[in-house]
Amino acid sequence: MRIALVTDTHFGGKSDSEVFAKYIGKFYNDIFFPYLKKENITQIIHLGDIVDRRKFINFSTARHMHDTFIKPIVDMNIKADLIIGNHDTYFKNTNDINSMRELYGHTTYNNLSYFDKSTVREYGGTEILLQPWICASNYEESIKIVRETSAQILFGHLEIQGFMMYRDGLACQNGLTPEMFSRFDVVCSGHFHHRSKMENIQYLGCPYEMTWSDYNDNKGFHVFDTEKRTLTFIQNPY
User: Fold this and answer.
1) Which of these, 44, 105, 148, 236, could form a disulfide with 101 (CB 3.0-4.6 Å)?
2) Strand pairing of 196-198 and 201-203?
3) So what's the pLDDT on residue 201?
């Protein structure tokens, strides 16, 4: 089974700029969804930070996100599993109030699911742990599942020490240690916007340039093959 992986979409970025919204819309309209249709990929996993602002969402941004991202998922009958990232949560110490719960938790979109707690799901016969942002209220439960799950693959929104947050920035000095995830064959994460890899852990990076720190840094999305356990990078040309 092939799964499209996208992360750190940050709808509403640049202070809800309409120019920015049109720019990122080109990625979804011209690159992302046409590729999924061409390759007959019917499963998306979003690795967190779906929206940009933690405290509220602009009505125009909510409409743009729906028309650009959610509606094509529904219209194309794609299954989309959305992992909650730190930008999706209202409070810093709990994932309970989050963007997807409040915007889409009461809808009838049966092919749209969000995950604010550690969850193991099966994709094409392969178990994958979906790990949302780890904060004070879910730390013990999340670490227990990370240590005990039978899943050999983890997709999440993690802050791990030693990884570059941006291409020309400093390596992360805080957060979780890479050794905590050494038991997994494959770990893919959102959160840091620069694509990087060490051992079994890979940060996928954001799909488009959003700040000067992103400038001239390859952006796009990935396709994960559950049988081969391989990642294929699809570059965004914009």
Assistant:
1) 105
2) antiparallel
3) 98
Cα separation of the two ends of the chain? 28
**What's 20-68 look like in SS3?**
HHHHHHHHHHHHHHHHHHHHCCCEEEECCCCECCCCCCCHHHHHHHHHH
> How would you class 95 by CB atoms within 10 Å of its CB: exposed for 0-12, middle for 13-18, buried for 19 or more?
buried
Chain centroid to Cα 30, Å, comes to: 20
Residue 127 near residue 136 (C-beta atoms within 8 A): no
Q: What is the pLDDT of residue 107?
A: 81
What pLDDT is attached to residue 59?
97
Amino acid identity of residue 2, one-letter, is R
Contacts of 112 by beta carbon, 8 Å cutoff, 6+ apart: 70, 73, 74, 80, 82, 104
What tokens were used for 182? 């050494």
Residues near 52 by beta carbon (within 8 Å), at least 6 away in sequence: 10, 11, 12, 13, 87
Q: Is the whole model's pTM more than 0.90, yes or no?
A: yes
SS3 88: helix
Which regions in the chain score pLDDT beneath 70? none
